[in-house]
Specification:
The chain has 100 residues and is mostly helical. It is built from four helices and no strands. Helices cover 56% and strands 0% of the residues. It is extended, with a radius of gyration of 17 Å. The two termini are 17 Å apart.
């Protein structure tokens, strides 16, 4: 999730977004983690990071909000599960045992 970038001013935001969506990095391009490392990280986060009910309510509210837009859109169950898992991984990699 982390993108290595140098600070930019407001005029540089468009270039930053363009580089991010192309997958450009400011480093040497080498991934510091392998697939096995990522799978281990996901398992550790799942086993050790709680997702409290207030966070579940935020996800529920986001789903309802997207559904109430004009035109309405939907957030799939799969995407909600992925979002919860990403929140766990972010919490775990920041030394937390609970998603905040």
């Amino acid at each position: 999730f982390r993108l290595r970038v140098r600070p930019v001013d407001d005029d540089g935001i468009a270039d930053l977004v363009a580089a991010a969506i192309r997958g450009d990095t400011s480093g040497d391009g080498a991934l510091p983690l392998g697939l096995e490392d990522i799978e281990d990280l996901r398992a550790a986060a799942s086993a050790n990071v709680a997702v409290p009910s207030d966070v579940v309510e935020v996800l529920r509210g986001a789903r309802r909000l997207v559904g109430s837009c004009d035109p309405p859109a939907s957030v799939s169950d799969r995407r909600l599960g992925q979002a919860a898992r990403m929140l766990q991984i972010i919490a775990w990699t920041n030394g937390r045992a609970v998603v905040e």
